[in-house]
Amino acid sequence: MKVLITGAGGMLGRDMVAACERRGDDVVPLAHAELDITDGPAVDESVGAHRPDAIVNCAAWTDVDGAEEHEAEATLLNSEAAGVTAAAAAAIGASIVHLSSDYVFEGKKRSPYLESDPTGPLSAYGRSKLAGETSVAVANPNHFIVRSSWLFGVAGRNFVETMLHLADQQPEVLVVSDQVGCPTYTGHLASAIAQLAGTEAYGLHHVAARGSCSWFEFAQEIFDQTDVECRVMAATTDMLARPASRPAYSALGSERPDAIELPEWRRGLADYLRERRTARSEAAA
Hints:
- With 285 residues, the protein is an alpha/beta fold.
- The chain has a domain at 2-155 and 183-210 and 251-265: NAD(P)-binding Rossmann-like Domain (Rossmann fold), CATH 3.40.50.720.
- The protein has helices at 11-22, 40-50, 71-91, 124-139, 159-169, 186-197, 215-226, 237-240, 265-284, and strands spanning 2-6, 26-30, 54-57, 95-101, 143-148, 151-152, 172-176, 180-181, 184-185, 203-206, 213-214, 231-235.
- α1 crosses α6.
């Protein structure tokens, strides 16, 4: 199968390239410098030239707080450009895999959100991601919309790296304890998406690490697994006063009979740390 990956230079995009290559796919990796999906004519030209069987759209606005002041820009990339990319795929008979977020939910539920649960984003970022789901679904009937949660991977900035960096600078960190989600390792997520793209199980999919925790619990586990001495202090969301509202609970579950299950989030962290050590060793060699 020939797979074109947009946003291939990003955290998930790089893992997607590796996952598809492991499956033996013919991969066309296009980073932002090679294809800006907000440039509609360029998207049409690139998709028409490469003629993939599937497009995995990893290009996205990911700055949750920044979207509050730049909602138009976030919506342009996460919705309008995503729809253009999906339409370009449809024009050549290709499927589209589009990444969405747990932040499309309001967060009042206390059991994992399923695909059929009503949405209600609290932030500009969440609104842009929800709009993108609609844009993609309308533009291409052969779509996979994949919602995931709290991503971390070796090829980008993430919560794990932030915690380890802070622990190098100070003896304690303050982390919110009243937001619960599913920390998901992009290496695991990319493998699942690569598998999904080779099927015809079109529609909405929740694909996130099994289990859930708070950011506070996640930070504790990071330091436990790395044997780092750093005290984790609990804070409330209100205490930290971030620009964008976050759902208090956004763990994801699936009601699909064909659901792809990822490993538990602690296993994801362990695999990430193992890959991180390998990457650092190779860089130092």
